[in-house]
Amino acid sequence: MEGLHKELFNYILPVEEVKPVDRKNSGKRSNDWDLLDPERSLDEIVVEALKTVVIPSSRRLTRRGKRPFVTSYQLATIISKMFPHVVQTNGLKFGGKGAGVNESFVSKLAGELSERIEVYGDEYPIEIDYIGTDYITDIELSVNPDVNDGNPTVNSSVTGSEREIALFRLK
């Protein structure tokens, strides 16, 4: 046993030889959300995307300081237009009605953000809420066709009673 232990010990790298993880993923598909862009974390991408959401000029003065919520579909659409490589590198279908998958970029993005909001609470720069989809029969959004099998639109697969869609906004 001592010889085996000594042999295994020789294969252990000293700490100084362990190289830090390179955030650049060399074009590999990844579901590690913080490795999808070589220069930005998911948090930075989402904050940048949410900053583009326009505050309506018609909004009452008391609410002008807060941006509106956007659905997870809208957020994923903004990201697809600003950072198409993030959606492509993720390796998941964009999502929506007819995508033929239970796990999509839209649903996984919403789940990941929901989890981060739960973990970091008030410290996190993004807030979440939900909209019920009762009496909503269709939601159609424009999307970057490069991330949606060439289709310039996507329809939400989450409509009808007893369903909800996550909403996000900057705090």
What does this structure look like?
- With 171 residues, this protein is an alpha+beta fold.
- The chain has one domain.
- The protein is built from 5 helices and 5 strands; from the N terminus they run H-H-E-H-H-H-E-E-E-E.
- The strands form 2 sheets. It has a 3-stranded antiparallel beta sheet with strand order 1-5-2. A two-stranded antiparallel ribbon has the order 3-4.
- Helix 2 packs across helix 3, helix 3 crosses helix 4 and helix 3 packs across helix 5.
- The longest helix has 16 residues.
- The chain is globular.
Descriptors:
30% helix; 171 residues; alpha+beta
Summarize the structure.
This protein has 171 residues and is an alpha+beta fold. It has helices at 2-10, 42-50, 72-82, 84-90, 105-120; strands spanning 70-71, 126-132, 140-142, 153-155, 164-170.
Task: Tell me what portion of residues adopts beta-strand conformation.
Answer: 5-15%
Q: What portion of residues is helical?
A: 25-40%
**Major sheet details:** 3 strands, antiparallel
Order of helices and strands: HHEHHHEEEE
Distance between the termini: 59 Å
Strand runs, count? 5
Rg computed from alpha carbons, rounded to a whole number of angstroms:
21 Å
Number of domains: 1
Number of helices: 5
Q: Strands of the biggest beta sheet: in what spatial order?
A: 1-5-2
Poorly predicted runs of 5 or more residues: 1-30
Mass-distribution shape:
globular
Q: Which structural class do the helices and strands define?
A: alpha+beta
| Overall pLDDT level | 80
